[in-house]
Amino acid sequence: MSLPDYLKDTAKDFAKQLTASTSVPIKTSTFTGRQFVAGEDPLQTQAINLARQGVGSFQPFLQAAQTAVGAQAGLTGPTAFRQFMSPFQQDVIDTTLADFDRQAALGRQNIRDRAATAGAFGGGREGVAMGEFDANNLRNRASLLAQLNQQGFTQATNLAQQAFGNQGNLAAQQMGLSNFLRGSTGQDISALGNLGAFRQGLTQSQLQADRQAAQTAAFEPQQRLQQYGAGLSGLAGFGGVAPQLPAGPDPLTAGISNAVGLAGIFGKLYG
Fold this sequence. Notes:
This protein is an all-alpha fold. Helices cover 76% and strands 0% of the residues. It has seven helices and no strands. The longest helix is centred in the middle third of the chain and has 95 residues, at 124-218. It is rod-shaped.
């Protein structure tokens, strides 16, 4: 069975166009290549740089905390208070005792003066009074010295305890800053990275759409000829319509399909 006369010119035109299309390479470069792969988003770059800058940035605060803990350890023990003793402690003691001794000397002289006035100078009663005075004087002097030492010790102990607490507070503060810096930097990096990945995904979706549009445009002549051939095959009575290709077929599939259609039409045309 040959083609009807009214289809022969149409078939020849189709054959001519199909033959011409096979000599023109499909521009696959318009829908392939790295230009259709989304690059690194600026926010992702920022997250990477922030991560690089943040590595070890907390170390100075951690080191300061460790130093404070070490200093705090040096404030413990039975002799820790000594480093807080006033350098003028002995001067205060010496001055105070010297004044006490002057007052004691005046007291002794007063006993002698009273004994002389009473006509008992050098007597037994003067000796008893002087002995009692010296005994009391020694007790009072020892008590005064103990009080001065106790005051110095108490003051140094209080200063040591205060320094111990200050070093503890400093250690906690520096450790808190270290942890905060690590946590906040990590959160910033995570947020920037996630947002960057989201924007990269949007960019990739747009590139995919652009790639699909470019691929469709590249295969448009083959698609048009396929539809042309399918309609012609149907009119020629080939027993149905030529198989339809999906959008954006690869060149080999399109070529085979069109070649099959061309062979059938040529058979009808010249058979």
